Amino acid sequence: MLGCPANALPVSPAEWLTRTHPDEQPLLASLFEKLSSGNDEQINFTLRLRHGSGMWSWFEVRSRRQNTAEEQASTVLVTFNDVTQQKQTESALRDSQLRYRALYTTSPLSFVQWDRQGHILEWNRRAEQLFGWTTSEVIGKPVHHLLLPEAQRAEFNQAIKALIQGSGDGSFSGPALGKDGLLLHCAWHNVALRAPMAACSVSSR
Fold first, then answer.
1. Count of domains observed in the chain
2. Whether residues 141 and 200 fall in one domain
3. What's the whole-number average pLDDT of the chain?
4. Which of 97, 147, 96, 99 is closest to 120 using CA atoms?
5. Are 112 and 127 within 8 A, CB to CB?
6. Nearest Cα residue to 183 out of 173, 175, 192
7. Are 178 and 149 within 8 A, CB to CB?
8. Could you give the CA distance from residue 17 to residue 15 in angstroms, rounded to a whole number?
9. Are 28 and 38 in contact (CB under 8 A)?
10. Same domain assignment for residues 81 and 15
11. Nearest to residue 20, comparing CAs of 61, 66, 77, 64?
12. Where would I find the beta strands (DSSP E) of 16-151?
């Protein structure tokens, strides 16, 4: 896991600390200190160890005391589980969420997200400007009743149903209602989100 031969693996606490990332050295030093004092406390944390390639690898560290067969003595087992891939996936997900949030916030298009029951979950700044309602005014409201004239709701529902079933692209054009009662002609581009949200609409006037 560390990319080095067995005879080059760290043995002493000092050698382990040398291979540990500076940010996590206090965690590992604390573990060694507790083990040397006979502390039975179970300790779990993650840290980075330098790989033989020079890169940092993430490990989940767990310690637990094991009794011997005679039950008169015990040893402490410390395990290192490589979680580098998990950490990289989490980092990529965070980056993706930040990019999405930047697009969502600054987009010139209106973004509306709602759950499977049609209740609005998110409403970006452009939607506030276009339709007139603030985010706090629309969260939890049924999107169809809020934004669509009654005559358009059945057609819109059919477009969403076809999208979810895979028989349509979710596109819909027609009048939409603004807060001031003005009818806006909007082109809706809908995307089905499997969980936890049911759909996202991007509308342009």
1. 2
2. yes
3. 83
4. 147
5. yes
6. 175
7. no
8. 5
9. no
10. yes
11. 61
12. 43-50, 56-67, 74-82, 110-114, 120-123
Distance CA 18, CA 25 (A): 8
d(CA 150, CA 147) in angstroms, rounded, equals 9
- Assess whether 67 and 117 both reside in one domain: no
Percent above pLDDT 90 for the chain: 32
Q: What is the pTM of this model?
A: 0.55
Question: How does DSSP classify residue 5?
Answer: -
For residues 34 and 117, membership in a common domain is answered with no
d(CA 87, CA 51): 15
DSSP one-letter code for 94: H
- C-alpha triplet 45, 48, 54: angle, nearest 5°: 165
Q: What is the pLDDT of residues 24-57, one digit of tens each?
A: 999 889 888 887 777 667 778 899 999 888 899 9
Cβ atoms within 10 Å, residue 108: 7
CATH of the domain at 185: 3.30.450.20
Summarised one tens digit per residue, pLDDT across range 56-87 is: 999 998 877 665 555 555 566 778 899 999 99
